[in-house]
Amino acid sequence: MCVWADQIRLQSKYRWASPLHYANTPDSCSFVYKRDCHNDAGQPDMCVAGAIRNFTTQLTTYRTQGSDSPHNLTEALLFLSHFVGDIHQPLHVGFASDEGGNTIEVRWFRRKSNLHHVWDRDIILTALADYYDKDGGLLLEELQRNLTQGIWSNDVPTWERCVKVNSCVNKWAEESTDLACKWAYEGVEAGITLSEDYFDSRLPIVMERLAQGGVRLAMLLNRVFSEDATQGFAYSS
User: Fold this and answer.
1) Once rounded to an integer, what is the mean pLDDT over residues 96-116?
2) For residue 234, what pLDDT is reported?
3) Where are the domains of the chain?
4) I need a labelling partner for 199 at 20 to 30 A (CA). Which of 23, 34, 126, 127 fits?
5) pTM here?
6) Sheet arrangement for strand 111-114
7) Looking at the predicted structure, is the pLDDT value of residue 190 above 90?
8) Key word Transmembrane present in the record (predicted)?
9) Strand 193-194 versus strand 105-108 pairing type
10) E-assigned strands of 36-103?
11) Tens digits of per-residue pLDDT, 30-70?
12) Residue 237: pLDDT above 80?
């Protein structure tokens, strides 16, 4: 379900959604919604943070309008599920000058890649091969253990705390751009070979962001679809 938004992004019908996968910052290690959340034409709210705000709002109409909602709630759910993941990948809130690391060509061990792809897939695929016998289910089990009884169990209440959606989403974006500066871009230049040292030091960051994204998506969906009206959100920033 969560990969649908990537699978359809090249279709002309959904071309409008391409900017919703990321937010570009002006190489300043900060995210400011009004400054950074727009598409190339300057249209506001067209970034990953704006998308999460919008689709969360659309889904809340389910409670009051049901099938009479003017929105495609199935697509809203599919988009939201994907974009909560995207906003937790640090380079989806990276620098405009290198398109979130997409134009920084590197080698990942012996294979050509770029910095964005290293954080999108290469670190995870290497971890799967080295530690999980290429079994995604084993990786998921470890994430679940660390959330329920391991290193993150005390952090979960903080991660899922959210009163105002807009403020929460901005915070998630701010976390990502901070991590991009401290971990993704740090020590990297075009043409460099990234291998054991980079992998070993960055894998814990990737794993924690996967866990945070899952916890926060669950929180959003539980609140959106709760029958208890008091479990809803405020939407001011």
Assistant:
1) 99
2) 58
3) 4-231
4) 23
5) 0.93
6) 111-114, 105-108, 193-194
7) yes
8) no
9) parallel
10) none
11) 999 999 999 999 999 999 999 999 999 999 877 777 667 77
12) no
Closest CA to 117 of 221, 194, 208, 172: 194
Strands 105-108, 111-114: parallel, antiparallel or unpaired by DSSP?
Answer: antiparallel
pLDDT digit string (tens) for 195-214? 999 999 999 999 999 999 99
Res 51: pLDDT: 98
At CA 105, angle to CA 99 and CA 111, rounded to 5? Answer: 135
**If you write DSSP's letter for every residue of the chain in order, what string do you get?**
-TTHHHHTTTSGGGGGGGGGG---B-SSS---HHHH-B-TT--BT-SHHHHHHHHHHHHHHHHHHGGG-SS-HHHHHHHHHHHHHHHTSGGGG-BGGGTTTTT-EEEETTEEEEHHHIIIIIHHHHHHHHHSTT-HHHHHHHHHHHHHTSTTTTTHHHHT--SBHHHHHHHHHHHHHHHIIIIISTT--TTPEE-HHHHHHHHHHHHHHHHHHHHHHHHHHHHHH-S-GGG--B---
Backbone CA torsion sign across 134, 136, 141, 147: positive
> What CA–CA distance (Å, rounded) separates 149 from 126?
25
User: If we measure between CA atoms, which residue out of 45, 54, 103 comes closest to residue 79?
Assistant: 54
Structure tokens at 12: 């002309």
